[in-house]
């Protein structure tokens, strides 16, 4: 197979952009609350609007992909993200924030559907595992960078009259300096549209088992208990990830009086940064241990760190919240691989179902916000014990048809 390194680079850049636009929401949460005078429940509808888009758009995008192919769908995805970003950059209120984040979520969901099979074709099947890990590392790097960029603009925009910062000062309300980020998102989306437009794409040929089947195939899979259990597992993982990331900054402000534009944003950045570092360690451990053992060990450690973050002092919380990210790092790839290795057919349709489980990022932060309004944010975040508890249980009941290859079982036939 002829590998197209330019397209691989473009895909990796797309992963960076997706993460940059997605994982800054948690750092912005306190500013949304203050800027629009929101309750915790209303604030939780912002990530809800973003992640519910994955549940609504992922499967229809698969249908569009078959008809219009990768290039047109990627351009459409970035175009939707551009208009979503521009909307909030121009009109600053809660309703436009909801609509904006929904549009950006739709665009990101469309891109996610395209780039994974495209990465396999462009980089070569034999290099897909390596390229996927590289993509996740770049994804994590962008998650670390975006809260830092937000913090810089929030802290330095006031009073600037020249250069780029002066331009932002002239178009951004003084009381909402973080809106500058959505101008940046709009420009980035526009640049990506231009880059994709003038790029030559390879022909992507999916194997029969990789294709998303008809609706009846999805219904048939949902009748299988193991499919439903793993689908719930994906909801719990993404819900945990976003439930922590979206409420870190507000929690630190509420209980420890840390500035969300500095300490809060830094802690969110370190949460994503340590998640990337934990993924590297996880790759090593998966070469010597059964994935279920790694999942159980890391989930128990995440539960301990979550408890330290919720009940510890301010300095302890600053360290413990990022540590949750470190130990959550292996959950997504392990849960997904255990799921796909637990059925012997229709892996493309099953993968689509699992990706729809990203709606957990909409559901769990909303539950935490609603509980937080009634009982306090700390109590609301107790819900994460349920989601992490479910993930822990997967390590005990999962019985994959194929286990992960380690240095000790590589000679075994599967």
In summary, what is this structure?
With 414 residues, the protein is mostly helical. Helices cover 78% and strands 0% of the residues. The protein is globular and about 60 Å long.
Approximately how much helix is present in the residues?
Answer: over 70%
Q: Could you give a short account of the major beta sheet?
A: none
Provide the residue-averaged pLDDT. Answer: 86
> What structural class do helix, strand and pairing data support?
mainly alpha
Describe the structure.
It is built from 18 helices and no strands. Helix 3 crosses helix 15. The protein folds into two domains: 206 residues, Growth Hormone, Chain: A (Up-down Bundle); 195 residues, MFS general substrate transporter like domains (Growth Hormone, Chain: A). The radius of gyration is 21 Å and the shape is globular. It starts with a helix and ends in a 17-residue tail after the last helix.
């Amino acid at each position: 197979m002829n590998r197209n390194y330019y397209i691989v680079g473009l895909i990796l850049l797309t992963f960076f952009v997706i993460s940059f636009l997605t994982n800054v929401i948690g750092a912005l949460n306190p500013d949304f609350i203050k800027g629009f005078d929101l309750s915790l429940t209303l604030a939780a509808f912002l990530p809800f609007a973003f992640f519910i888009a994955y549940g609504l758009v992922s499967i229809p995008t698969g249908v569009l992909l078959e008809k219009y192919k990768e290039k047109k769908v990627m351009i459409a995805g970035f175009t939707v993200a551009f208009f979503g970003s521009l909307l909030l950059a121009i009109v600053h209120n809660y309703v436009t924030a909801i609509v904006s984040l929904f549009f950006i979520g739709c665009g990101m969901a469309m891109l996610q559907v395209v780039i994974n099979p495209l990465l396999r074709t462009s980089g070569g099947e034999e290099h897909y595992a390596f390229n996927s890990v590289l993509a996740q590392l770049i994804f994590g790097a962008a998650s670390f960078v975006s809260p830092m960029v937000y913090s810089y603009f929030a802290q330095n925009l006031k009073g600037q009259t020249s250069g780029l910062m002066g331009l932002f000062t002239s178009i951004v309300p003084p009381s909402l300096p973080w809106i500058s980020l959505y101008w940046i998102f709009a420009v980035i989306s526009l640049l990506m549209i231009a880059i994709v437009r003038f790029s030559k794409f390879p022909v992507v040929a999916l194997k029969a088992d990789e294709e998303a089947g008809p609706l009846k195939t999805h219904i048939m899979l949902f009748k299988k208990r193991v499919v439903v259990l793993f689908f719930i597992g994906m909801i719990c993982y993404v819900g945990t990830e976003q439930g922590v990331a979206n409420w870190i900054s507000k929690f630190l402000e509420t209980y420890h009086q840390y500035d969300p534009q500095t300490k809060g944003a830094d802690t969110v950045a370190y949460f994503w940064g340590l998640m990337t570092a934990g993924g590297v360690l996880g790759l090593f451990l998966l070469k010597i241990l059964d994935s279920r053992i790694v999942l159980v060990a890391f989930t128990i450690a995440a539960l301990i760190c979550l408890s330290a973050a919720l009940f510890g002092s301010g300095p302890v919380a600053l360290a413990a919240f990022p540590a949750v990210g470190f130990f959550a790092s292996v959950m997504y790839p392990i849960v997904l691989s255990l799921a796909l290795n637990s059925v012997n057919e229709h892996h493309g349709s099953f993968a689509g179902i699992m990706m729809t489980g990203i709606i957990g990022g909409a559901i769990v932060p909303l539950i935490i916000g609603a509980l937080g309004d009634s009982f306090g944010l700390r109590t609301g975040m107790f819900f994460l014990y349920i989601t992490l508890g479910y993930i822990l249980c997967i390590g005990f009941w999962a019985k994959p048809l194929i286990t992960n290859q380690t240095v000790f079982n590589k000679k075994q036939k599967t």
